Amino acid sequence: MQRRGLAMGLLASLLAIVYLDRIERMSLTSELIFYRRRRTFMSTAVAATNRSRVLAIYKEILRLGKNWVAKDADRTLIERKDIVNEAKQTFRDNKEVKDPKQIAELILEAEKRIVQAEHYGIPILQTSTPPTSNTVSSHEGRETERSSGVRSTHFNPIAVVFARRYFAGSSISEDILSDIVKLCSTNAQFYTDFVSTVLCSNILEQYPVRKSYRRNLLKQLIDLLDRCGIEILDELYTACASCMLDSAEYSFRIFLTQNLDKVLVVLRESNQQLCYGTTGLSLWQASCDLANFLCCFTNMLNKSVLELGAGCGLTGIAIARNFSGCSVTLSDYDPKVLSQLDFNVGENMDKACSQIKVLNLDWTTFSMDQLDKIPDVVIAADVVYDCSILPALCGVLRMCLSAKQGCCAYVASTLRDPLTLKAFRDKLGLLL
């Protein structure tokens, strides 16, 4: 434990991240989700080709609207009408456009809208502007918590561990897989419930985990079940087949409560470790470990918490979901990271959740005036990776720790380069 409560030494192993090609849109012609690679439109695009593509997209959106099913069933008819009206109005507004480059941009935007609608369930265009350094975004919560749908009556502790890791996209050992197969062979009701409410859970339709992860795990289980002479349920084959094509730009991690009945946190992350020039769109193991440490071994009730370099926002969101009466500010700098933070906060807010805000924060120009509240606790996960940013990071920590008596900080860092971590410790020693 460093002076003034700065907790150090929380070392985490790296997640194995599968590198995938970035894509921009999906085809809507099948039950499976397909993607097409991003197209680069040149200003010399042939007008006839563009016109044909515009008409094809227009028909595609109308078809989408006709078959649309809203997340809230009561809004299905309303949202179908909204989709069709938006498409018709956009078509009318741009019918006089003749510049090939402008037409190409409109086509690309329309393709993105199809992805937004089909993949994320957003029926009509919703403007989302990343918060500026002088603004903070906040969210209203849903009325109730989300049920996981897991029927865990026949689950033993091993099955609980499997389920929590599976939904979170975490590695599962061969020993756990073997134990699960044994349970399936001795308890028919467990096998049925396990397949239908865990492996093939409906919640994975709304929040799909990384397909490569799910596909590999299901193939392992199917092989083990087959070796033991256990009949493979059709649902398993269907789920495995749905994961064969894996070119999605984003996937989700779902963190369940200890008893599996509720969804605690849902996070969207990029399927690429480095995306748009930033690592902040992917979830890193240090944030998982820090979230677990803070929720299990500290008391954040009624605390004001500032997270630096929040990335996907797991640690701060987990605190807000676990401790009542606290105020959490998630800060980062990259516009795309801020947009994703905003998305993840919105997905996790309900009436029982503490207040969460998203703030654009540049460490090099930081001042305490940018914060609504002086923090009681400062947290950061996996921010110590580049010596060039250490002076600014340590400067922010110094100002926050000096602003209020009793303020403390928790920093979790993956051990990559011991020299970088040593430089961080040395810099803190000079400042504190």
TrEMBL record:
Signal peptide boundaries: 1-20
Keyword Signal: yes
Region (Disordered): 126-148
Annotated source species: Ancylostoma ceylanicum
Compositionally skewed regions (Low complexity) per UniProt: 127-138
Domain of life: Eukaryota
UniProtKB keywords: Signal
Cellular component terms (Gene Ontology): protein-containing complex
Segments forming domain Complex 1 LYR protein: 53-113
Protein name per the record: Complex 1 LYR protein domain-containing protein
Biased composition (Basic and acidic residues): 139-148
